[in-house]
Each structure stands twice: as structure tokens, then as C-alpha cells.
Amino acid sequence: MIKVRWIDRFGRGIARLSRYVSPSLLAASLVLVITVIALFVPPYIGMADNGDYFRVLYSNGLYFNHPDYDSMYLGYFNKEFGIFQYFNENGATITSSQSLLIRLSVWVNQWFNKHVFDIRVQGALLTLLYTAAVYLFVEGLTWKMKPRYGYIVAVLAVFLFADTAYTAFFNSFFSESMVWIMLLYMFASGLLLFRKRYSDYAMMAIFFISALLLTTSKQQNAPVGIIVAVMGIMLIFVRKQRSYRAMVASSLAFLMLAGIATYVLIPKEFVNINKYHAMTRGVLMQSEDPEETLKSFGIDRQYAVLNESIYYEPYTTVDVNSRILEDHFYNHYGFVSILAYYITHPAQAGKMMDLAAKNAFTIRPPAMGNYEKSAGKPFGAQTSFFSGYSELKKALAPKTFGFIIIWMLVVTGLYTPHFVASVKARDMRGMVRLPLVLMLMCMGLSGIFVSIIGAGDADLSKHEFLFTAAFDLVTFTVVADAICRNLWQNRPAGAEDES
Amino acid sequence: MRQSHRLYVAVLALLISILAFPAPEPAHAADGPAFPDVLIVYDSLGVGTEHEGNVEALKRLLAAFRVRVTAESIDSYTPGSLKGYSKLIEVQNRAELMEENHDFFADLNSYQGDFLFIGEKPGAKLARTLGLHAKTSPMASDLSIGPFAEKYVNVPSLWDSSQAGVHRYGELKVPGSDSTYPYGVRKGKYAYAPFLKKDALSEVALSYVLKDWLQEERKGHFFLVFKEIYPFSDLELLERMSDELFEAGIPFIVSVHPVFSNTDYPAMKRYIHTLKYVQSRNGTVLVESPVVASTIQDLDRSLHRQMEHFVDVLAQEGVLPLGMGAEMHWTYDEHYVSEGMPFFDSVILYPDEHPIYKAKRNRSEAFRSSLYSVDQAYMQRYLADGRLLEPLPMDTAITVDFVQKETELDSLMDGLKNGWIIFDDYKREAHRVKTATNEIRSESGTLTLNGSSAGIQAGHVETSSDYVYKHQGKKSFETWFTVQNKIFIVVIFVTLSVFFGFLIIGYRMYKRKFYK
Q1: CB atoms within 10 A of CB A449
Q2: pTM > 0.90
Q3: What is the ipTM of this complex?
Q4: Cβ atoms of A453 and A342 closer than 8 Å
Q5: Who among B271, B291, B296 is closest to A316 (CB)?
Q6: Interchain CB distance below 8 Å, B259 and A324
Q7: Sheet harboring B439-443: ordered strands across?
Q8: Rounded CA gap, A258 and B355, in Å?
Q9: For B440, phi and psi rounded to 5 degrees?
Q10: Residues of A with Cβ-Cβ distance to B404 under 8 angstroms
């Protein structure tokens, strides 16, 4: 009797709450509060530089102004950088969408300080963007669902989205922050389109812009544009208007071009590090006969001595940017020839995939510290503040490629009945969800493949961020749909609306 | 009680003995000769000016005269430190004069040791001692010394001395005039040179002044050194080059890049066999310093262990390296000196290209044999008539990057065979390389390994590519698991067949029941 009364009271409480705060608003607000506490309340959380900042910083008009910067590499987060006051001889080039973000942040920063850039300005901009993305995503999952289910999803969303393994990237110059937020926007807008929640035109615009920024955020994401362009074809048929269809089709074509352009415009210096690893820590490493393997690429067999060596070795036989390697090593292979090699040597590819899977569930790269030096924490210390989800994932996920395959099959199986039902009912909008989920899974897989082909097993946990992000979004969607009784159903979206 | 007291006394005595007798020094310092100390004091490194790099050039020249150099800026000069030196070089790169009341100048006034001044405005005391007097204002002059000449050198001012007993070095001639002025002037322990520019003729010109100022009596020699030799260089071409040089009677040195991993691979064996072949053709092997990465990843690698391992791998196969080739900044770095160089008493110091320090210090490490290096282009640029008969004042390595094509090799060989430079055999001088397990020595052309004479005869060796790169781990119950796998496959197959059978039967029954 008491229990029934309690449930009744809880139900009324939820109904009252839903009048003022929707699940999506609740999730977004909590994520905002937790992220603000993590990033903007001392001790500030961010990411230490692993040596990659140099390229991004100098090409965007910033420089290292800390006198003791060298001692902070990998260990400590640094929040302040100098703004060039004179001609920047490094050539201010926009090589990625991340540059746009940095330029915007510097511009905003200059309202307050013209000489010193505080990375928290960028953190603040990203936090605002992120909050809106979380709102849209949870809205896409909980709209028209029973409030009690919606709030459960909202609370779970906070657990995932406020995790500092993700949000610490906002206070850094790593492009992972951009990847994560844009992936969220893209998926959220796709889901909202599927649910017919907002204007289709507005959602398509968000989808397109976020996919474009995601594709161009880093060179590794070049395949994303192509995947979206191919798997997003279903979006063209959501509406019947010719203008809409033409707009979506041309947007998708543009995304494909952006993907190709991102691949072509990779800076050379960046290529050498990854090319070196692709051969020494990839193709050669798993080969039974490295000399024979080198011959198949037309490379002198003597290069076998470089097997398993890494770019970061403090003392090496040869400078990785030397002419001899340029002329006789790097010039003999590329992304396509390595891909072809793995296709013709599936056993080796399998071994590499298993190696990749070992690092595929780590969100926070283990090498970089999160605190400022002034916080008094040890060198390389990482925060445990609101990191439950990332820690749990790292500890519990089965780290084999077989698990990834099973996960993909299960997810596809769960969404297929609804897709089939939509096909039978000729409900084009209902057909959007499965391709959307598949699109994310393919992006995740591309993250793994590109890491392996492009850089062997070096820096895997950082290179595979796209997979870990896609895995989380898709898994969360499955869990949310399961909670909302919206998963294993063979009713098309239209029928859902009527219920 | 008494026993514990004895124990304390014994421990105390042990501690005192440890403190009193410091740890043994590296091989080159422990049993080598005592090296004279020279202090360089500079007002500026001249970064961004024509003087940039001249202090580095001076350091490299001094290293070739086997002196230990301490270089410091005048701004960081510690009062009184001049007393510890008997040889001082002051380099003036700034146009404006420093304040006279600076601590350094106060010490300089009372300094009694040898003094060399390089710069536009020598002090009054030095000018008086050498009888220097300025002749003309800045202008372009032609500089010549020995067999070398450089035209239109921008000279800050021309000086001369008419004092008796003054030695003049080189000649500066103003075009269109008959007057000549010396480049350098020395009298006893005092010397003066008006300018020094890196990679220009003044670098070699100063070496003539330095030789006398340092009272170096040894004669210099030329050595031919090939750089850029990797395990993946064209090894056949390297053997061919060795054959041709051997036939032409030209001794040579190959400075080879070390390999720290996969030293058991066939590729490494081929590298070693080639080096052995080179050695048999009157070639000398030197170990080049490894490439230091500019990355910041802190991987736990011991340079000492890596270098020692490489030397031992070579020695084990009969390749006997006699020294090390490194950029000059290695000798000004505590880490490189103690970890990468303690095995060697002989070095060739190359100009710094991209210095990356680990533990920078302002004092250099001196070596028993230290070669100054210049590349072929430098020689060709400044040799007045292409002929070089007399060696430079110090031992000099003429460096050539090993070629990658046959055609390049042909023209290189032609140049060397037809050249006038007489190269010496590095093995004729005493060199020593010592690791924990091996001691390699050379003396009068003979190589010894661990005290016994080493035969260097070798022919071309074909190395097989057969090698097990991946060792299979020991497997337990392999047969058992294979059988078990087969049983499971059969069981799964049968189960699936039965399942599909039931599915079809069930579907037919369902249809019969509901679709009648």
C-alpha cells in the first residue's frame, strides 16, 4: 500500500517536473554545471601538450610564452599562450576546422586581453556549443517518450556527457573536442530529423555543417565525409520537394569533396611521422618476413632494420625526415598501397585489428596530465573528477576486435525490424535511423582502419578517438531506445507518432 | 659495544675513502695527456649578424688543437674566474664597446697569461704590446693565406704593426692598391685577429694564428671521411668505392650510423660484412653519433648501453671502429659526453647543424685525437689554384657525403684520384676504443682487439635472407585443442542443422494452422 502511494507520488512529481524541465533541458543543464565546475573552477582541468600543439599554435598566430614550457610537456596543462603582435613568419594557414575555432577564440579573447590568450575562452565557447548539442541529442532520444523514461535517459546522459575524459579536451588544442561535439551535433540532428521534431531544413543545415566541420577537423577524418555522403543518401528522400532534395544531394556531394580535399591537403611533415609508423609499427611489425614485405613495396630489403622502431626514439639510426628515407622509403608506399597490402594479407590485418581493439575503449589518452603545474599535483596526474563512465568503460569493455564485430551485428539487428517495417510502409523518414546508426559505426571503424593503415600501432588510444566516440553515442542510443521501449519494434515512425 | 664501535670506524673509513678517491673518469680522460685549458669570453654571439656562428667556429678550431675550452658570455662572467686560466681569447662581436668598469675588464687588467683578441677594436694594452695601429676604415679586401684565397671580404678595419718580433699571418689586400696588411698578428703570448666568420676563409686563417699562439708543434694531416652511411645505403656501391680507393692508394674513413635494435637481422649482417670489406680495403670505421630526436617523449633509453652494444656487435664480427664522429655540441653536453662518448679517445667534430642538448655545459671535453672537419665544397671554394700540398695547421677531415648513384661515384672518384691532397691513414696514429668487454687499439697501421693483433682480410660475403623473425611461443596441448576444435565444429554444425530443421517444421505447422 505504502509502495503504491510512493510510486503514485513519484509519478506526480515527474509530471510536475516535466511541466517545467524537459529531460533534454535537465541533461543539458547538469552537463553544463558539471563541465563548468571541472573546467572553470580551480584546480582547472585541461590537457597537457604532447608536442602536437606547436603546429596548431604557430599557424594560428599564437606562441608559447611560458618560460618553462619545456618542462610541462606531457605532464602539466598550460592555459595561457602569447598572441603574436607582429608579422607571423610561420604563415597563418587554415588547415582544419579547428583553426576556425582557434581563430574565433582568439578574436573573442582579444576583447579582454590583446597579448595573452587564455585557452579557457575556447573552453567556454566549446562548453556552450556542447550544452546545446547534448540538449538536441537527448531531445532526439526522449521526445514524445514517457517522462519517467525520459528522465532516466537524461540522468544516464549526464553520466556519459559530463565525463571529464571528454570535456577536458575543451581546454586543449587537440582536435578531439571538435570531433566529439560535431559528431554529437550530426547524430542529434539526424535523430531529430527522424523524429520530425524541428524544421527539416534547420536539422539538415545542422547535419551538413557539423559533418563538414567533423570531416575537416583533422586529416584522419577524411573518410568521414565520404561515409556520410554515401550512407546519408536516405536523407534525400525524407521530403518530396525538389528544392529540398537538390539541396541535400548537393550538400552530400560537397561533403564527399571535402573528404577528398582533407586527405589531399595533409601537411607533409605530419605525413612522415605517420608514414614511418605505418610501415615500421604496422606492415613490418606483423610480417613473418619483413625483407620480403619490403620487396613487395619496391623498397630495399635493408630497411628491415627499422622494423618496430618508433619515431619518438630519443636516439636513432636515421633522421625520420632525412633525404634518404624520403627518396628510398616513403616514396614507395602510401595509404592505398598499405590498404591493398592488408587486404591481401588478412591474417596480418586481423592481428593489427586486435591490437587496435586493445586501445579502442580508452577515451582519455594515458600519456597526458590534466592539471596545471601550480595545482601542485604530480607530473602527469590525471583527474578522477566525474570520470566514472570512462573508467568503467576502460575496465569492462572486452578489448578484442571480435567484440566490436558482435557489437555492430547486435546493434544492426536491433534496428533492422524497424527499418524493414518502414520499407514495407514506404515511410522514407522511418528508414533514416538505421543508416544513421550504421553511418556512425562505419565512422568508428574508419577511425580504427585509418589509425592502423596510417600509423601502425603508434599512439593508438589517441588516434582511435573517433571510434570510442561513435561507440559511446551508438551504445547510448541503443540503451536509451531500450529504456524508452523504442528499440525492437516493427512500427514505422509515422505509426509511432500516432500512438 | 667495542664491536659496534669498530664497525662505525670501518664504515667511516670506507666513506672517507669513497669521498677521497672519486669514481674513475672516462677512458679518454683517465689515461690520456693533460689538456690545456682555454677560456673564451665573448660579448655577444652575434645572432642575426655576419658574426653569427664565429664563437662556434672558434670552439671547433680549438678542439682540433686538443685543448679544453670554457666559453662564457661577458655578462655571465664570474669575477675572479680568469685567475684559473693561463690562456684567454676575447671575442668582440658588438660594434659598441662594453663598459670599462665591468668585472671582466677589471680582471683583464691584472691578467698575465696568454691573450688572443678577435674583434674590431683591440684594447689599448694589447695594441700597445703588439704595436697595432689602424690603417684604413672598413672596406672589402682580398684575404689570402697559404694556398687559400677569398675575394672581397668585408673587413671592419685594417691593422698593421711595425714592431720588431711581430709575426704576421695571412694577407689582406685592398683591390686597386699595392698595400697589404696582415690578417693576424702575434708576438709571444699576445695575438690579434680583426675578424672571424664562420664557414669563410678567416676560419682557416685563424688556425695558423692559433697553432703558434697555442705552441702546438705537431704537424697536421688530411683525412678523407665519408659520411651518410646507413645500413640501408647502397652497400654494393660502398664496396666498389672501397675497391677503387684501395687501388688508387687513398686511405679513407667511413663514419657509419649506429644501429641499436634488430642487430641480429640479416640486414644488419650485410651492413657489418660490408664494413668488414671496407676495413680490408684500407678503410677505417668510425661510429657516427646517433640522430637525436627532437621529440619530447620520455622513453627510457640508455645511450651508454646502446652505443656500447653497437661497438661490441661490430667488434664481435671483426669490424674495429677507432673513434667517433659527432657534431661539436656533443662535447659541450654532460649527457652526451658521459653516456655516448666515454668509449672513445678520438673524434671528428662536425659543424653543428641542429644542436639538441640534453645537459648543456659551457666547458668542452677534450680528446687525444680530434679532427677539424671541412667539406669538399669549402676546399674547392677557397683553394687558389686547386692544389693543396701542405696540410693545415691541425689534423683535418675532408668530409664527403656518401653517394647514392654510380654516376655520382664515378665523378667523385675522378676528383679524388686527380686531386693534389695527400690523405693520411687514420690507423697510423694511436687510437683507442674501450667498452666493458672489448678494447680496440690502433698503432702504426696495426689494429688490435683485446691485445691481440686483428686480421682485417675480408672478401665479399652474401648473407642469406633466411631468418626466423617471429619466434613461435611454446604451445601446450596443441593436439588436444585441435581435436577439441574439430569436435566443436561438428557439434555446432549438427546443432544448427537440427535448429533449422525445427524452424522449417515449426513454420509449416504454423502456416497449416493459421492459413487454412
Answers
A1: 19
A2: no
A3: 0.82
A4: yes
A5: B291
A6: no
A7: B431-434, B439-443, B446-449, B452-453
A8: 40
A9: -110, 135
A10: 324, 327
